[in-house]
């Protein structure tokens, strides 16, 4: 029994680290790219603080197209880009590229939805006091939408955990790769079950943490 536990631990520990590594950096990069994109989608709308119909329409179409692509197809299509950026298309580092690209439009729509929840009266009052577009974005829209943005970020992280498991199917590493290689191909049911349990625990911890942080930031 001890030997079996040690064997499971030796398999799960590095795979768990790879999954957390992929999810952390893909979340970071998708937020860096998706946050400003979502902000622009909101402020460039008709009658908003930086109205630009053409830009809004183009960005909207791009985001919709990217969101319509199944992740398993996207990760294969981006193999050449992964090779250019990280020098390989295989492994957890290479998987960060398609994970980030896949999550960026998702983050953008979450940011857009969150910022639209901010009452227009608050924005209008800020404009009346002479606030600039930059001030409205960083002192009004984002602070007011922060609880909703945290919940959106939580949802993004959970989705990326699922995406990272799919990336394991084509050499991305992580818990998904472990479940396929040992749980499916080698019929080691115990490895498959423990992989699922670890993923469930991760998701529960992230969701609970996100809920608590969002609730704490909500001043309403």
TrEMBL record:
The chain crosses the membrane at residues 20-43, 55-78, 84-108, 149-171, 191-210. Residues 16-210 form the ABC transmembrane type-1 domain. GO terms for biological process: D-methionine transmembrane transport. One of its GO terms (cellular component) is plasma membrane. InterPro entries: AA_ABC_Transporter_Permease (IPR051322), MetI-like (IPR000515), MetI-like_sf (IPR035906). The lineage of its organism: Bacteria, Bacillati, Bacillota, Clostridia, Eubacteriales. Keywords: Cell membrane, Membrane, Transmembrane, Transmembrane helix, Transport. It holds the Pfam family BPD_transp_1. SUPFAM superfamilies: MetI-like. This is D-methionine transport system permease protein.
């Amino acid at each position: 029994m001890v030997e079996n536990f040690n064997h499971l631990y030796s398999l799960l520990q590095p795979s768990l680290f790879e999954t957390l590594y992929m999810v952390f950096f893909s979340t970071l990069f998708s937020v860096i790219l998706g946050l400003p994109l979502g902000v622009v989608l909101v402020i460039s709308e008709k009658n908003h603080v930086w109205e630009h119909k053409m830009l809004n329409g183009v960005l909207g179409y791009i985001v919709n197209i990217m969101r319509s692509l199944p992740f398993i197809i996207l990760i294969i299509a981006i193999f050449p880009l992964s090779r250019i950026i990280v020098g390989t298309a295989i492994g957890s580092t290479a998987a960060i590229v398609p994970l980030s690209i896949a999550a960026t439009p998702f983050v953008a729509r979450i940011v857009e939805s969150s910022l639209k929840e901010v009452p227009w009266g608050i924005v209008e009052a800020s404009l009346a006091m002479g606030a600039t577009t930059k001030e409205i974005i960083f002192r009004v829209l984002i602070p007011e939408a922060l609880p909703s943005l945290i919940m959106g970020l939580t949802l993004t992280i959970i989705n990326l955990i699922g995406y990272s498991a799919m990336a394991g199917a084509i050499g991305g590493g992580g818990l998904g790769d472990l479940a396929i290689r040992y749980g499916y191909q080698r019929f080691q049911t115990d490895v498959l079950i423990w992989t699922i349990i670890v993923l469930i625990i991760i998701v529960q911890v992230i969701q609970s943490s996100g809920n608590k942080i969002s609730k704490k930031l909500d001043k309403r």
